[in-house]
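Throughout our pipeline, every protein is held as a single compact record rather than as scattered files. The record that follows is passed on verbatim for readers who wish to inspect the format:
___
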Amino acid sequence: MASQKLSEPAEAVREAFEEHGLEPERLTSYGALIAAFNAGFAGVLLAARASGRELPRLGAGDLALFGVATHKLSRTLAKDKVTAALRAPFTEHAGEGEAGPAEVRERPRGTGLRRSIGELVGCPYCLDQWVAAGFVGGSIFAPRATRLVAGVFTTVALADFLQIAYRAGQKQL
């Protein structure tokens, strides 16, 4: 009787996964990535508490700096030609086609967790949360260095937009 009660919630979860439409294996892998993110971020917060550090109050300037830096670093990690070496275990080249300037097209490969990681590392929108958490965590333990790194990526993002605007202006001439 006790084992039946234990299997009822597991059966309900299995049914919910099947009804969702994605393979249960993919949903399980996504769950593992969610757990990893939350465990990592909770670990940062617990380490801050254990070290007696106060959590920073992020002002509008920090949010703008970290926001633009997150955008740029996420795109760099997910789409840059040079960072393809980091993604290679989880993605494969998808050939030529629609991609941004100096960006590559890739698709996830493998199955299970490997494929889910490929989906994560090839998607700048998906990486945003992870990168932003890194900047926020860095602002707890090394605020000056974190702002400096964020400043580099913010500057690069602004330069990218200027390059695109320049190229568009050249086409107008």
Observations:
- Residues 31 and 121 are 16 Å apart (CA to CA).
- The helical segments are 2-20, 24-50, 60-79, 84-87, 112-121, 124-141, 143-172.
